[in-house]
Amino acid sequence: xxxxxxxxVIGAGQMGAGIAFLAAAxxxxxxxxxxxxxxxxxxxxxxxxSINALVSKGNLSQAAGSDACLLLQCTxxxxxxxxxxxxxxxxxxxxxxxxxxxxxxxxxxxxxxILASNTSSIxxxxxxxxxxxxxxxxxxxxxxxxxxxxxxxxxxxxxxxDDTFSTTKALAERFGKTVISSQDxxxxxxxxxxxxxxxxxxxxxxxxxxTREDIDAGMRLGTRHPMGPLELADFIGLDVCLSIMRVxxxxxxxxxxxPCPLLVQHVDAGRLGRxxxxxxxxxxxxxxxTRPSAKL
Length: 296
Ligand code: 3HC
Prior knowledge:
This protein is α/β, with parallel strands linked by helices. It has 2 domains: 6-182, Rossmann fold (3-Layer(aba) Sandwich), CATH 3.40.50; 191-288, N-(1-d-carboxylethyl)-l-norvaline Dehydrogenase, domain 2 (Orthogonal Bundle). 45% of the residues lie in helices and 13% in strands. It has helices at residues 14-25, 37-56, 62-71, 95-108, 124-128, 162-174, 190-206, 212-223, 229-236, 238-252, 261-268, and strands at residues 6-10, 29-33, 72-75, 86-89, 114-117, 137-142, 151-156, 178-182. It has an 8-stranded mixed sheet, with helices on both faces. Strand 1, helix 1 (14-25) and strand 2 form a beta-alpha-beta unit. Helix 7 (190-206) crosses helix 9, helix 7 crosses helix 10 (238-252) and helix 10 packs across helix 11. The relative contact order is 0.09. The structure holds 3-hydroxybutanoyl-coenzyme A. Residues 50, 120, 143-145, 147-149, 190-191, 194, 226-227, 232, 236, 240, 289 line the site of 3-hydroxybutanoyl-coenzyme A.
C-alpha cells in the first residue's frame, strides 16, 4: 500500500474545501487548486475557521491546530499538485470537463499518484479512460458537508487495482470516515437510492399531492431524515440533483428515472438551491445554515 503524505484537492467549492479541511486536520500536507482566486480565499478561511472551531471545542490542541493551518497551501496553478501522492477532484459534475482534467492530471501528477474523483454519479471507468493510468483512478465520493458526514463511498473502475483501492480506503479511514464500496454503475449506492427519492418528492409537489412543507415534514418527522427531500435538494444544489438524475436515466435506460419537469424547470430558471438563495425555498443569508426561511 502506497504511503500518502500530500493530498491534492481540485475545486475549492463546498466539497473541495471540506475535503481539504479533513486532510489538513488529519495531518496531511494539502495543495488545494482552483482557477478562481476568490474561491480559494473563501476555502482558505473556511479551513482555518473549521480548524479553529476544533481547537475551541477542545478536539484539537492549540499547537496541532496551528500546525494544521500551515499544512494547507492554496494555488491557482495546477502544476503545483505535482508533488501530491493522491489528487482528489471535486469540480463541476460534467463528464467532459472531468475527463479533460483527468487527462491533464495524468501528465502533471507523479507517476505513482492516485487520481480520485468525488463524482456523484459519473462512470469512473470512463474518467479513467482519459488517462494512461486507469489502474490508479478511483471514485472517492464524500457526502455534503464532508467534515460532518461519516461516509465515504469508494468506487472501483473496471481497471482500478487492489493497491489503489486499499490506499484510498486507508486514506478515507484516516479522515475518520466509514467506507462503503460500490461497483461502477450509475449513481453508485447512495445516489442510486437518494436521487430517485428526491425526484419523487418533486413529482409529489408537481402533481399537487402536498405542499413542499408537508412533503419535507413527512420525511423529516415520519422517517427521521435530518432534512426533508426538497430541503435536501436545495442543500445539494438542484443542478447537481438534475445532472445525477440524467446520469441514472441515460445509464440505466429506464423511464422511472426521468427527471421531474418541475426539477428541470427550477434549474432552467436558475433556482439552484441554497447557493443561489433560491430553490424550492427562498433563503436569507443569516438563515442559510438552518431551515428554509421564507416562502416564495
Ligand atoms: N462544515 C463543517 N461543519 C458543519 C457544516 C459545514 N458545512 N454544517 C454544519 N456543520 C456542523 C456544525 O458546526 C455543527 O457542529 P457541532 O455539533 O460540533 O457544533 C453540526 O454540524 C450541526 O450543525 P448545525 O447545528 O448548524 O445544523 P444542523 O443540526 O441542522 O445540521 C446538517 C446540519 C449536518 C447539514 C444536517 O441538517 C444534516 O445532516 N443534513 C443532511 C445532510 C445530508 O443528507 N447530506 C448528504 C447529501 S447526499 C450527498 O452529499 C451526495 C452528493 O453526491 C449529492
